Amino acid sequence: MNPLLLNAAIALALTACTGAAIAQDRGLPDIGSSAGNLLSPAKQAEYGAMVLAQLRHEGYVLDDPLLDGWLDGVGQRLASASGRSQQPFTFFLLRERQINAFATLGGYVAVNSGLVLAASREDEVAGVLAHEISHVTQQHVLRGAEKAQRDSLPILLGMLGAIIAAQHAGGTSSGDASSAAVMTGLGLLQQRQIDYTRDNESEADRIGIRLMAHAGYDPEAMADFFQTLQSTVRMNQGDERSAVPGYLQTHPLTLARISEARERAARLEPALGSTAAITPSSNPLLPPGLQIATSVHSRQGQGDSGDFSWARERLRVFSASTPAQAIREYQQMRAKQPLDAAGRYGLALAHQQAGQNAEALQELAPLAQAHPDNLWVQIATGEAEAHTGRVAEADRRFETLLTRMPTHRALALAYARLLGERDTRDAGTRAVAVLRPLLGNASNDLPFQQAYARACEIAGDSVRAGEAWAESAYLSGRPEQALVQLNNLKRREDLDYYARARVDARIAAITPTVLELRRQGVHDEEANGRLSLGLHDER
């Protein structure tokens, strides 16, 4: 494929899928929106899920249960305040350290690692999420996508075809070139998919600030973070590529916009202050001496869940280019001033990632004593204990925690992964039991499917393992590989009625996507030749 045509295809497809905004004709009154008429909620959700799957396939998504839980907690708290309960949201992290975030169809919202690292408190991250949520709830993304569809531009499968073709163009020898093509497409996705009008941006700011206030976050934090981005621009004036953070390229920012955000927040604060102060009641209808809570605004850390500092340091480690680079970052930080508890936790994680588990445990042991209820620290300590041969201590730690929180996703997945490393039937059986309480909500959970597949595999349940490995492939952007695995599983003579019904249902669900990809000439090279769907090449 010609690289220029390939890049153009990626640009058009990604822009169409995520909805490049179209400036509205101001010459006519807005007497109704067609948003939602062409793309049903189910189709929007399908598009968003496939964007996430392909980003995973290219290695951009940072799947970590603890970080996912934190980001989802912040995002869902804001989404609940939107009053749009019918609109689902999925929040996920990208490894990139550039400051950026974007929303796409179906309520899928991505946040770059660099954005969290640039924030000084959780309220600032909440400000960005509130803005992106507002772009979805106000149908800015959807309107652009439907306009693109009416113009006959490719949407879902055109995007998938372009990305996969870029990945495999010219075989394995062209890895660098195809990666560059994919990065070009993703850059255009982030730069053009939220090329909203000034009115769109103003509306997202206004609605987002109200969401923050109603969710208990500091409404001034949005303007604070915009100010941080402006400072980043000033510090990078000599480097044209890094002078403007990606978030500012997709969300143009002016001093007037910052001022407007501050003014809106200031107008909300007297009515929506969130810190309660106890004062005597002056209401003659209430009993004398009764004290009631009144609202008093308090800014710093107003809505912080308490997990931001731990999440930021975990993200610092996992987004670093190498574990050694992460260790060097913490050494440089320590040279300037002593590390706080979260910083020591991050350094311990960096040692863990580098395979230096004894050093990690040396940092974690005193933290675990000082923070007995902190899951971030307790999980890391248990992992370090297991990897330094103190298996019994690790098991006691995890079993005690699970007694208190048997359905905590990050805790269960961490313990199941450790058990999976032991490669024994007993460990596998215990891992399956640990994961079983999460099964009901695991259909779109890639880390769960991977851990469950491994647990079932070593526990001796090869059928369940095969189903979970197929789901893992599908969620990782490999639908053809998933179909190969399911068809192989279906040939087994030991499948009972219920297992065969589950496999048949998944084959029926996945086949249309694979058929359409093949019609477009897109093949998964690793699955090629192993899957026959009765198709003839269209010439």
Number of helices: 25
Radius of gyration: 25 Å
- Poorly predicted regions are 1-33, 151-157, 166-178, 180-195, 273-301, 534-539
Report the count of strand segments. 5
The termini sit apart by 16 Å
Pattern of helices and strands: HHHEEEHHHHHHHHHHEEHHHHHHHHHHHH
Tell me roughly what share of residues is in helical segments: 55-70%
Q: What characterizes the major β-sheet?
A: 3 strands, mixed
Strand portion, in percent? under 5%
**What sort of overall outline do the alpha carbons produce when their principal axes are compared?**
globular
Spatial order of the strands forming the largest sheet: 1-3-2
- Quick check: average pLDDT? 78
- Look at the helices and sheets and give the structural class: mainly alpha
What's the gist of this structure?
The chain has 539 residues and is mainly α. Helices cover 63% and strands 5% of the residues.
How is this structure best described in words?
With 539 residues, this protein is mainly alpha-helical. Among the domains are: 3-24 and 37-268, no CATH class; 306-387, Serine Threonine Protein Phosphatase 5, Tetratricopeptide repeat. It is 63% helix and 5% strand. It has 25 helices and five strands. It has helices at 3-18, 41-57, 65-80, 113-118, 122-137, 140-150, 156-168, 175-192, 198-215, 221-235, 240-243, 246-250, 255-272, 308-318, 323-336, 341-353, 357-370, 375-387, 391-404, 409-422, 425-435, 446-459, 462-475, 479-490, 497-519; strands at 90-94, 101-104, 108-112, 275-280, 291-296. α1 runs parallel beside α8 (175-192). The radius of gyration is 25 Å and the shape is globular. The chain starts with a helix and ends in a 20-residue tail after the last helix. Residues 1-33, 151-157, 166-178, 180-195, 273-301 and 534-539 have low confidence and may be disordered.
